From TrEMBL:
Protein name: Beta-galactosidase
Keyword Hydrolase: yes
Catalytic activity: Hydrolysis of terminal non-reducing beta-D-galactose residues in beta-D-galactosides
Catalytic residues (UniProt): E180 (proton donor), E256 (nucleophile)
EC number per UniProt: 3.2.1.23
Amino acid sequence: MTHISPAHTTTDAVADAVADPATSALTWRGGRLYRHGVPHRILSGALHYFRVHPGLWRDRIRRLADLGLNTVDTYVPWNFHQPREDEAPRFDGWRDIERFIRTVGEEGLDVVVRPGPYICAEWSNGGLPSWLTARDVAVRSSDPGFTSAVGRWFDELLPRVAALQACEGGPVVAVQVENEFGSYGDDHAYVHWTRQALSTRGIRELLFTADGPTELMLDGGTLPGTLTAVTLGSQPDAARRLLTARRPDEPFLVAEFWNGWFDHWGKSHHVRGVDSAVRTLRGIVADGGSVSIYMAHGGTNFGLWAGANDHDGPLQPVVTSYDSDAPIAEDGGLTPKFFAMREVLGAHEPLRSPERLPTLPPTRLPLVHRADLLTGLRAVPSPTTTAPRPASFEQLGLDAGMVLHTAHPRIPAGEHRLTLTDVRDRALVFADGTCLGVADPDSPELPLHGTGDVVRLEILVENLGRVNYGPGIGRHKGLLGPVLVDRRIVQGWDSTPVALQEWSSGELAAGVAAGPTATPATTSATTSATTSATTSATTSATTHAGFAVASLHVDTPADTFLALPGSSRGLVWVNGFLLGRYWEIGPQVTLYCPAPLLHAGENTVTVLELERLGGTLELRDRPELGPPEEYVEEFD
């Protein structure tokens, strides 16, 4: 275990500084960075292939080049490639990271790869597979139960990256060791292991760590002989002084410059002023400094991949959009921040990309209710587990989506209190098909009227996003504590996974085709969100929860933005592809639908509304991400 003190240098560090340019594109000496021996600055932008439709990869890469950048950096989310342990990691289609890297190279840019295994990125579980964090292992540590699994993943991933390094004629010039480990722990043996795992699997280009610019974080995450980078939103001069004191021979590299911020459901839409962002960027690149703009283009948390945070209070799920107030907007639009940053970066060539891509004309479409909520969900084939207590997501091998729990307790006549003692994260509760309301950690109790008969008690539990940052990574989901009627535990449960993210078109169609019940089960209670926001009361006479569809005719596919006025919360599929979650508590109002998801002719939009269906689908030609609020906490 190595402690790095201020102004610490080692013979290893010197050796890296003068590495043979024939085997490493990037080297450093005397506080300067070189590319094949020529003075160089990394001007990078974060662009995540997993947040951009593959049909738009090249378009977005070109926009980064237009911004004046010479490098693209991307994380690699392990859980995106290997959501199930019993299946080999996938590297095809949307997961074809090799194709993405080659495309960046074809556009004349370098690539920085950040393979984690932990990535944060406001991505579910910080990129770690839930099948791994379901075990009793110490994640992000030298626990052999963790490192052995990471080693097997790296065996699959890293040879693909290694073959695309600059020393092999490819565009990869640097690889990050873990990710901001110093803000998490102090297991230096694990960080050493991670660096060794990269090297022994063929990574020969520049290795670097990235941590916040404090003594505590740098002590926890840095390694001797490995370039130290920092992550920050403001005060680059202070960070430069700190790094110079600790690593006087190393160049200044900001691996993440937070020029915007992400959003949580029920909170504000965060923006960062152009002047503030540009002022910090100018300070970073001064005197030869290198930077990666996080995010240069944020993209979208398609499906149910959005993460959540709980390090400063109750669970805060991340919204579907990952626009992040980046210089290149979620739909690829070039913002005022883009042009101001372009000037700082010294880009003068004519733009190759249009400022905006074409969109479909605005229109309103009827949203036709097809199947009630429970009827539709029951119609989708799924194995059921029977046990005395409800099965958790982890016990069912379910990463995201929902679980439908069913029990048949006898409830004495009179008024009772139903309590979900530990629900993660939100549950709709039904008695004999009638919705009693919503339970969450802030409001775990609901009234229950008994008649002395057996009641069909159904609890639909929704995972709102796995924690992506801090000690809460890996926390389990579902009904984790007993369900009580007054003080008595309800036992004998059937637990059925609702694997929304894994549904095929056929499974989605089965839910839609189930049809309404004779007496529609509808919500009729005021609901409270995990974020402590509330939705309006609903009435069974005018509303339906469940499956609905809209038909959209398209002559020429183009981008569009979907809104569901009057609907409460749920999920949207476009031609069988799960676009993401919507929620009336905002701030996000519209869901971005990229053109490649549509085709000429008839297109089907399917909605699974969990509480109240509005009856209308709107196509808009502009995004609506909520009233903006300047976000300064992380910057000033």
